[in-house]
Design brief:
The chain is built from one helix and 19 strands. By secondary structure, it is mainly beta. A six-stranded antiparallel β-sheet has the order 14-15-16-17-18-19, with no helix packed on it. It starts with a helix and ends with a strand.
Length: 256
């Protein structure tokens, strides 16, 4: 009798496990964010998290955009102040943004998280997301570079796998190195690198190493992860651990 009771209990437990697994899979599928929630208006709320770890940056016509482990932050070049960040609350599919890009022709912002690529429509101000596994890419193979061309946008994964999108409409499709346009403007890992930085002067107990490291008075190092110059001779730096720096190239001064 005890054996039959144990068998029934074991079968019931197996059924519960199967149902729980199915529910978890369904929940994971439902957690996919295809686009910004149209039920909410821009500015209904703003989410803030840790933005001190910067993966990449892009200079646009009005903002400097920083891809961080907590979302996208943006600094207004004309008002000289931070605007509200973009996070999952705004429709991004993930927190850790590996690369961000700006298309001057369309005013579209492109970005990649660890599991998807996305773009922000400047008219609707909503995000549209495409998940990497739908295109045969593993989540563990993140997009690290975005190249914006005349008609296409290319996404390069860490493994070298390429995806292409028509920047004037349409979905994504696999691409080959031979498809790359010569006029691509690269952001992220393929962006133009600065081999040797000027010797910037800093205040508040920080020191700048021309190898691309900011050091504080406790000798803690914060590597520069990305850098780009804007039209006003300002060099913008993203760091790993201490957020963002702006350097005046004429005065050789760097401020955080």
């Amino acid at each position: 009798m005890e054996s039959r009771f144990f068998d029934r209990a074991l079968r019931s437990f197996a059924v519960v496990l199967l149902l729980a697994g199915a529910a978890a899979a369904q929940e994971a599928e439902e957690l996919r964010i295809p686009f910004s929630n149209p039920e909410y208006q821009i500015g209904d709320w703003t989410s803030y998290t840790t933005f001190r770890y910067v993966n990449a940056l892009a200079i646009g016509s009005r903002y400097v955009y920083f891809a961080t482990t907590g979302g996208i932050t943006r600094y207004n070049l004309f008002s000289n102040e931070w605007d509200s960040p973009w996070t999952i609350s705004d429709g991004l599919p993930g927190m850790n943004v590996t690369v961000v890009a700006y298309d001057v022709d369309t005013d579209v912002i492109w970005c990649a998280t660890e599991g998807a690529v996305s773009y922000r429509n400047p008219t609707s101000r909503q995000w549209q997301n495409f998940y990497l596994e739908d295109f045969g890419l593993a989540t563990a193979d993140p997009i690290v570079s975005i190249g914006v061309g005349t008609n296409s946008v290319f996404f390069e994964a860490q493994s070298g796998t390429l995806i292409r999108a028509d920047k004037y409409g349409g979905g994504l499709e696999p691409a080959e190195p031979a498809d790359l346009e010569e006029s691509l403007r690269w952001f992220g890992a393929r962006a133009k690198k600065i081999k040797k930085f000027p010797l910037f002067h800093m205040s508040q107990g920080y020191f700048f190493d021309t190898e691309g490291i900011i050091r504080d008075f406790r000798l803690r190092d914060y590597p520069v992860t990305c850098a780009a110059e804007d039209p006003w001779s300002q060099l913008w730096l993203g760091t790993w651990g201490i957020s963002v720096g702006r350097a005046d190239l004429r005065l050789a001064r760097l401020d955080l």
